[in-house]
Design brief:
Elements: H1 3-11, H2 16-27, E1 32-36, E2 39-44, E3 47-54, E4 59-63, E5 87-91, H3 94-99, H4 101-117, H5 133-141, H6 143-151, H7 154-166, H8 170-185
Antiparallel strand pairs: 1-2, 2-3, 3-4, 4-5
């Protein structure tokens, strides 16, 4: 048990009982308990395997390489369409956690085996994502913008593509592109 996680648990106002039960289950494995990103994170030989986190309507166990798990019970959830590797099991009560305890332990064992085996999730490259028309037309007509965008890290490129794509209206997408062009030209990411 990690003292930093003890402090996290003591400070938890929502999902505290659920976190305590999940922690008990997870600590019954060979994982090491740490606090990362402000959340209890469980590792195997320094590699992240899973973490616990809470949201407004549920708490969850997030498997970092959940896409590689078999999910025989069909309980893993992909948080959004852009999440490639991680998968969650969501809970809304301690009773639900108790009911799924045996299954959760099996998923944890499988996640550890995935980490031991060295398997990696095949991530999509930035080129595999559809670039919104409004941005693509600007890239096609502005060589400096294209060069600046291509010089960004793949993660920054994806962040811009996702940001532009999330707008439903063409006018909103175009507006977002225009607002972001100076940052791209400066070599900055969306959140820099």
């Amino acid at each position: 048990m990690n003292p930093k996680v003890d402090a996290f648990m003591s400070a938890a106002t929502k999902w505290r009982e659920e976190f305590e039960k999940l922690r008990e289950i997870i600590l019954d494995s060979e994982l090491t308990e740490e606090l990362k990103w402000g959340q209890p994170c469980y590792t195997y030989q320094g590699k992240n395997v899973l973490l616990m986190h809470g949201f407004k309507d549920y708490c969850a166990v997030l498997f970092h390489k959940g896409a590689l798990l078999q999910d025989a019970d069909g309980i893993l959830i992909r948080q959004t369409e852009n999440v490639q590797a991680g998968r969650q099991i969501r809970f809304t009560s301690v009773q639900e956690i108790r009911r799924l305890e045996r299954t959760l332990k099996a998923y944890i064992r499988e996640a550890i085996e995935v980490e031991k085996s060295g398997l990696k999730v095949e991530l999509k490259t930035t080129a595999e994502y559809a670039v919104p028309e409004e941005f693509q037309s600007r890239l096609d007509t502005d060589p400096a913008l294209k060069a600046a965008f291509e010089a960004l890290t793949p993660g920054r490129q994806r962040a811009y593509i996702f940001h532009f794509s999330q707008a439903k209206q063409p006018a909103t997408r175009a507006s977002r592109v225009e607002k972001c062009i100076p940052k791209i030209l400066d070599g900055l990411g969306l959140d820099d």
